[in-house]
UniProtKB/TrEMBL annotation:
Residues 169-441 form the SAM-dependent MTase RsmB/NOP-type domain. This is 16S rRNA (cytosine(967)-C(5))-methyltransferase. S-adenosyl-L-methionine binds at residues 263-269, 285, 311, 329. It comes from Franzmannia pantelleriensis. InterPro entries: MeTrfase_RsmB-F_NOP2_cat (IPR049560), MeTrfase_RsmB-F_NOP2_dom (IPR001678), NusB-like_sf (IPR035926), NusB_RsmB_TIM44 (IPR006027), RCMT (IPR023267), rRNA_ssu_MeTfrase_B (IPR004573), RsmB-like_ferredoxin (IPR054728), RsmB/NOL1/NOP2-like_CS (IPR018314). It is found in: Cytoplasm. GO terms for molecular function: RNA binding; rRNA (cytosine-C5-)-methyltransferase activity.
Amino acid sequence: MNDASAHHNDGQALRAAAARALLPVIDAQGSLSALDDSAVLPRDRALFRALCYGVCRSLPRLEALAGELLRSPFKTRDRDVQALLLVGIYQLLYMRIPAHAAVGETAGAARLLGKAWATRVLNGCLRRLQREQSALQAKVDRDPCVALLHPAWLLKALRQAWPDDWREIAIANNAPGPMTLRINRRRVSREVYRERLLESGLESRICEFAPDGLTLETPCDVNALPGFADGEVSVQDEAAQLAVELLGPALAPRPGARVLDACCAPGGKTAHLLEAFDVDLTALDSDAQRLTRVTDTLDRLGLTARVERGDATQLEGWETDRFDAVLLDAPCSGSGVIRRHPDIKRLRRAEDIPALATLQGQLLDRLWQLLVPGGTLLYATCSIFPEENADQIKAFLARTPDARATTPADLAWGRPAGDGRQLLPREAGHDGFFYARLEKARA
């Protein structure tokens, strides 16, 4: 087999693999977090991930166009061919792949799915899209859900929550998030590390709000980051880095302060707290598999914490009034990080929000019992919905007489949101995030 034939076959295999990986996500039966690229050639893995994430990011438009291109929908047993068609449409609209490769190798990939009959169907659909791309897109984009690449329930929720900002939020959600680094201040200064990046050919800009943050102008593999294996740097969005700023006043003057990081996985905030403060930290999460990521992160950074598995709504046997500070990075809708997890658009439902709000309230009530009098609880979510954020804190304060909000009013970032602070996702900037700092009355 010559090189051209081998490359052709590899291209078909790559697209077939993407279709197989996408099918459970498209059918709302799986997520991109389980994406397995082990069957893809190492040189093709970046393209494989770009295809999978890109298709999820633009799914409403891709599916609308597929509906225009097909004479009739595929049968249920042929949903993998439907996924392959979406992969082909995505390449033609959004990627710098030669059209002949996007069409030919996508259509040919149907044979690898065991459905050679679909080769002709896919070839016809994609060639028609080449010819009529502008007209077809204009037609489907009359629907704002298609034009803004969001399901109807999500656009409605954004409009209700942020009537002046919803469109900008949707646009920010549709662009991949930047790669932002957190410099380990125990190992190196941000200024020195920025120079090291430049020496490695990586340009960066200083984060506007996070004192340990640098954002790369162009994302790269973490192994290309100088000092990554030695614990000098981690990848963490700027908004997530701000937890340390808010907990600082409670921890900086108190070496050895006892801190609980509840719902800690995958461990970014855990590590940042230990880099910034000399504290006695317990990292808690209910997911054993995700806890291994916490342990791996701490090992790489040379940091120490007690890592425990447990349900933070229960914690039977734990002593009350045990911790000087609690960080509750609560399970949430993820509505502020859709650009990093575009499958949220397909997997999340409107009815999920009340259930999440109930869980968040249970976590607040239980963890509040573990604070010493005068202790601080920092509530955080990567959500932009008031039900999970400002409304949640308002309800908690109403039922908790010994709690008061201490979220600073003069922060340079975000905007006031009830008794907390809300960041909205910004193109080329930080993710969407909410913080509220609460203090327990002294005895």
